[in-house]
């Protein structure tokens, strides 16, 4: 199967790797190439194709290896793999790279629910140190004065804003946002369906029909076409005997004839997959759960300018006295007008709010902790929660955080209280 390599992607990979193996006097070359973009666009697979075409050998680290019960293990792993890759390049006499997949998943901080551990700090610090001194990478407890051969590092991820900012600065990491164009998608999808006899025009029509889908969607679509034959095979064998027939069977592995890869069938199956995606997006079960549990972390304020009484009226209902300001946004005498306006503007943009605190000692390391168990999307709730946090953490730093619920990222961070200062 001839897979398609996007020319722009191949060019970026080739330039970065080659540049790191050249001696360019007076030029500081970033050691790390960060490839980021939305999920499912084939960042890792395109890297593998580029490495294969260039004859580059790869040492892999998964984002899941960047955490451990033992503090310091992930940082030591990165140093060890880097030294191994450097030695491999020296012994083999060819280009080698160290690749870390899903770096943001292992070392990123997405929201207040992501614990910022010692290992996370050490991983960031280790990558920064290697980027600054690529020929002097030592293992803990030992020192070797022999300079290493410099080898480039390539990392992939979805959202690099979750990473430690000094790590991704220019000079250490060169950033490359991968978003395949229509021509790239047509080429990649054509490679996926190359054995199935789809014409160039049919591939283009398939891509245009599902223009908003990622590359992984089309790969999953091809796999789904075989479901009908596999389902029929299971029914023919029987659910009770399928395990014996498939695993270690003396009859050998089952053979399937080529399924129907007509454009109409692909589009029909694709629409079924899109419908399943929408069911997941529309369920919002987590939001519903958070709304049910929202009141457990703080006491919500009563509606503004409303004074309930316990005196029943003539028709049996309780009297409620309302002023002309009953429909205005909630306000607080304990918060400055500037802070209240900040809250109003954040919510008006469709963002949710969280509140974080930290003492003076931890402020220098950025180890903020959340005051709440969930995000807030109501003005009165935000005022009430902020007042509670100001009272509970009066001697600490407090900051207001605006979060984009769709992109799952922070958009605003504002300190609203300092120790022994005004709020």
From TrEMBL:
<protein>
    <submittedName>
        <fullName>Ribulose bisphosphate carboxylase small subunit</fullName>
    </submittedName>
</protein>
<dbReference type="Pfam" id="PF21228">
    <property type="entry name" value="RuBisCO_activase_AAA_helical"/>
</dbReference>
<dbReference type="Pfam" id="PF00004">
    <property type="entry name" value="AAA"/>
</dbReference>
<feature type="domain" description="Ribulose bisphosphate carboxylase small subunit">
    <location>
        <begin position="327"/>
        <end position="419"/>
    </location>
</feature>
<dbReference type="InterPro" id="IPR044960">
    <property type="entry name" value="RCA-like"/>
</dbReference>
<dbReference type="InterPro" id="IPR027417">
    <property type="entry name" value="P-loop_NTPase"/>
</dbReference>
<dbReference type="InterPro" id="IPR048571">
    <property type="entry name" value="RuBisCO_activase_AAA_helical"/>
</dbReference>
<feature type="compositionally biased region" description="Polar residues">
    <location>
        <begin position="321"/>
        <end position="335"/>
    </location>
</feature>
<dbReference type="InterPro" id="IPR003959">
    <property type="entry name" value="ATPase_AAA_core"/>
</dbReference>
<dbReference type="InterPro" id="IPR000894">
    <property type="entry name" value="RuBisCO_ssu_dom"/>
</dbReference>
<dbReference type="InterPro" id="IPR036385">
    <property type="entry name" value="RuBisCO_ssu_sf"/>
</dbReference>
<feature type="region of interest" description="Disordered">
    <location>
        <begin position="294"/>
        <end position="335"/>
    </location>
</feature>
<dbReference type="Pfam" id="PF00101">
    <property type="entry name" value="RuBisCO_small"/>
</dbReference>
<keyword id="KW-0067">ATP-binding</keyword>
<keyword id="KW-0547">Nucleotide-binding</keyword>
<comment type="similarity">
    <text>Belongs to the RuBisCO activase family.</text>
</comment>
């Amino acid at each position: 199967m001839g897979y398609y390599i996007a020319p722009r992607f191949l060019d970026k990979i080739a330039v970065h790797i080659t540049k790191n193996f050249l001696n360019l006097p007076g030029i500081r070359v970033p050691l790390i190439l960060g490839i980021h973009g939305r999920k499912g666009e084939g960042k890792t697979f395109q890297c593998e194709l580029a490495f294969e075409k260039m004859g580059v050998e790869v040492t892999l680290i998964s984002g899941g290896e960047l955490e451990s019960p033992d503090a310091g293990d992930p940082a030591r792993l990165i140093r060890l793999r880097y030294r191994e890759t450097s030695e491999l390049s020296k012994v083999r006499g060819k280009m080698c790279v160290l690749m870390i997949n899903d770096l943001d998943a292992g070392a990123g901080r997405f929201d207040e629910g992501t614990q910022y551990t010692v290992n996370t700090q050490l991983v960031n610090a280790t990558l920064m140190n290697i980027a600054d001194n690529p020929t002097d990478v030592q293992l803990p407890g030992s020192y070797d004065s022999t300079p290493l051969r410099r080898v480039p590092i390539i990392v992939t991820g979805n959202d690099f804003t979750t990473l430690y900012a000094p790590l991704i600065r220019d000079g250490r990491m060169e950033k490359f946002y991968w978003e395949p164009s229509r021509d790239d998608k047509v080429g990649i999808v054509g490679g996926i369906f190359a054995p199935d006899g789809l014409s160039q025009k049919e591939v283009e029509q398939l891509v245009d029909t599902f223009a908003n889908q990622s590359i992984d969607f089309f790969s999953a679509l091809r796999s789904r076409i075989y479901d009908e034959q596999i389902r029929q095979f299971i029914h023919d064998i029987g659910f009770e005997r399928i395990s014996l027939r498939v695993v270690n069977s003396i009859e050998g592995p089952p053979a399937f004839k080529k399924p129907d890869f007509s454009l109409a069938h692909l589009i029909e199956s694709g629409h079924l997959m899109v419908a399943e995606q929408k069911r997941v997006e529309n369920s919002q079960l987590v939001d519903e759960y958070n709304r049910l549990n929202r009141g457990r972390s703080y006491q919500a304020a009563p509606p503004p300018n409303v004074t309930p009484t316990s005196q029943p009226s003539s028709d049996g209902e309780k009297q409620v006295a309302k002023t002309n300001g009953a429909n205005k946004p909630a306000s607080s005498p304990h918060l400055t007008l500037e802070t209240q306006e900040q809250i109003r503007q954040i919510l008006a943009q469709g963002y949710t709010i969280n509140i974080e605190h930290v003492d003076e000692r931890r402020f220098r390391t950025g180890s903020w902790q959340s005051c709440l168990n969930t995000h807030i999307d109501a003005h009165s709730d935000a005022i009430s929660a902020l007042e509670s946090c100001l009272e509970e953490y009066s001697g600490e730093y407090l900051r207001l955080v605006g979060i984009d619920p769709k992109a799952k990222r922070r958009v605003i961070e504002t300190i609203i209280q300092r120790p022994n200062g005004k709020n």
